[in-house]
Amino acid sequence: ALQHQRPDASVLAVDASEDALAVARANATRLGLAVQFRHGQWMEGLEGVFDAIVSNPPYIPAADPHLAALTHEPLQALASGADGLEDIRAIVAQAPVHLKPGGWLLLEHGWDQAPAVCTLLHSAGLEQVQGRKDLAGIVRCSGGRWPTVK
Question: What is the pTM of this model?
Answer without folding.
Answer: 0.92
